[in-house]
Amino acid sequence: MVFTPNHLYVPVAYLAAAGSKRYYTGANPSYTVDELSVQISIVKPTIILIHPSLFETGFAALKKANLPSTKVFLFDDEDCDLQKGVRDWKSFLAKGEDADSWQWDELGPKAMKQIATINFSSGTTGVPKGVCISHHNIVSDTILTMHVKLHETDQSVSLETERWLAFLPLYHAFSQLFTINIASRLGVTVYIMQAFNFIDFLYYLQRYQITTLQAVPPVMTLLAKRSEVADYDLSCLRNIMVGAAPMPLQLSNELTKRFNFSIARGWGMTETTCVGILEPDNVRSTDGNSGYLLPNSEAKIVDADGQEVVDTPGELWIRGPQTMLGYWNNEKSTRESCTTDGWIKTGDIVVVKNHKWWVVDRKKELIKVNGLQVAPAEIEALLLQHQKISDAAVVGLDLNDNEYPRAYVMLEPGLSPGELTELEVQKYIAERTAKHKHLRGGVEFKRSIPRLQSGKIMRSKIKEWAKQDAKSFRPVRPHL
């Protein structure tokens, strides 16, 4: 297990662990002692590599998990001083002659079942689960993603000048696939940020003439709204792949017009190694689609009764060489998510037209208003178009056996409370949507919207807010 922010040796640990038939698992560096101890208890690692800045949390979590046989080392790209008897990870590295004589197992057919990584699902809608990904899964998703990504690219010219900036966390499948596996396969130059800071991010883009990014929607929102962007030359940027969470269509169209780069959307999940659907680089689509199904993969749309449907929204089921082996030591969850013939029930509501896929929302996040479905992502996208709103989350408010959309919004920096009212927000949405999508559950202003590092809204936290707010809710409705 690795518990660290990004640094140069994280890819080394990833490749070494997987390549030697161990299992690599990374933990979110923002985890508390309790959160980390849960993951430690589930995977029971033999070795934990902990960054010096996280040592107190990591050491306390290991003690709480009560695994005395687990070995702990300090893990950084610089030499580490001894802490509580814990040594620098470099102290257990093999000698040069031993490394030279090491023989890698080529695996062959064993690659189909040999676990390489146990990445954890985000836990936005339930208890995090360890996702078992095989060597075959990783190689397949890497090659298939590269095929679609570079489909419209002159590789002989493009790859020689490619420079990537990796700021997404390396404990996450998204960054592992691109920063480690695809970048290594293509041989492109990658600069790794230890942690995301927007001004540093802009500076590195300009200094290193970055051509390609993998990003999440909150970062794209910063590019569109922060005034500091004008102080930097971003003309080097050619392609940005955006995933992990929905991005409003107006935002992507605004950015491509302003900066003249291409934005490729994609869909994936930890259970599909990473990518399942993707747009190619250098394509300027303006309709918000998430792209094409990866080669060698199958997908179908299934309704609430488990029947396959066509030309109507439904849950995406997918299977292919990139789909997981199952959940670590959790057969019950594996049976609930996977069919016996290999389909993964993704929980995402999608539509497909002319081989292009659109992700509408999460099945578990849909709000039911008088029998009609409301997709939170649709309302959130509208809210983010408001000039005074910086971020937003929408959830269902349960009242007297009915459910109504409720919004939590964050004002733009510099605005004071009162410069935008609840009634104004409700009226803004009511003027743009059908009646069942109106914010009859009210609006509350927050200092921030809780998000994971991947950019996904922490729905469980938002639902906790709504549950508490329902106890004292008093409806306020706009006059149209």
UniProtKB/TrEMBL annotation:
GO molecular function: CoA-ligase activity
AMP-binding enzyme C-terminal domain segment(s): 378-456
Domain of life: Eukaryota
Domain AMP-dependent synthetase/ligase: 2-328
Pfam family, one: AMP-binding
PANTHER family: AMP-DEPENDENT SYNTHETASE_LIGASE DOMAIN-CONTAINING PROTEIN, LONG-CHAIN-FATTY-ACID--COA LIGASE
Protein name: 4-coumarate-CoA ligase
Organism, scientific name: Cladophialophora chaetospira
The organism's taxonomic lineage, starting at the top: Eukaryota, Fungi, Dikarya, Ascomycota, Pezizomycotina
